[in-house]
Predict the structure.
Amino acid sequence: MTSVLSLRNTTVNLIRPSRDERYMKYARAAAESSTCSRLHVGAAVVSQDIVVGTGYNGAPRGIEHCVHLDDSPCRLAVHAEVNALLVAQVTIGADLYVTHAPCYDCSKLIINARISRVVYEQDYRSRSGIELLTRGNVTVERLRS
Ligand SMILES: [Zn+2]
Ligand SMILES: [Zn+2]
């Protein structure tokens, strides 16, 4: 969507970012707060064009941050999607924006939270989460930037 703003004799074209791009920025911003040394993931729940919850991956509240010396999966961090769902006032019918494709376990919770659409940016090591979401009738889309 393009809108044109005229300032005296100057015309400035404002390119409005797409809705998906706009809300993915909230997920990316949340990822910056991640306290897991292995991967920084952020998520945002959007209901009726309102951001109702955000989250990032990290150790449970009050537990020291996790530090990983190899690339094996993190078992301590609560995933960004779960943290966003836990604080969101509304999840039924909402969209979930997440910087990385949800894992299998998060996908089970996303389905039961009745999220209707997941938009992600980066692929994760496994596609089993995406496949489960699809089987659970959640629309899954990848945002290519
Ligand atoms: Zn970790
Ligand atoms: Zn997960």
